[in-house]
Amino acid sequence: MARIKQGILGPITGRIANIIGYERLGQPVIRSIGRKSSIPRSDAQKAVSMKFKLTKAFLKPLKNFINVSYKTAVKGSTKIPENQAQSYNSKFAIKGIYPDLEIDYTKVMVSEGDLPGAENITIELEGNMLKFKWDSDPELHHHRFRDQAMLVAYLPTNNNAFYTVSSARRSAGEDILEIHPVKKANGNDEIDQSVEAYIAFISDDREQVSNSIYAGRIAL
Q: What confidence score (pLDDT) does residue 137 get?
């Protein structure tokens, strides 16, 4: 049963037939409930579903990072950061032809914004420490020197991730991220084989971010 809490012209809350009304981020939303079709799904439809599942699995261990890194990209809209990240990466970060689809880690974007990104990035692994280095551009406005690095290390074998949303200042030109390769939880002895690294920047007031940049892959 649906209710109209704010009178006849107010938003609907609840279900009417195959329609559901609710509030999302302070905005009234109405959507229909899908009905199962007897028509076989095409390969194109299956590809869309597979892209969604691949991207959703990739983003799962990064949820708290994404809530910060995509926050400004959805500001003023009814989207949430996770949806924006899902939409972008499903569209641009999947390669192959169905059913042989996979994540293209070089195209993944774990942050979206208009701050200047990192330049001339290098990464190296020393024990469990992943070291990032980048150029600190002296031509940038001095306010940008206080931007903080946001670092991500994604380990595909076990869908595991390590990250920080408030690392060293842009002016520092380097920082480290501690990672811990693990065995799979199902009891076999397959351990993480490689790490995919990304870097972005966030402003000192946390109100602006940069697009992330793929920093590279390192074998473990």
A: 78
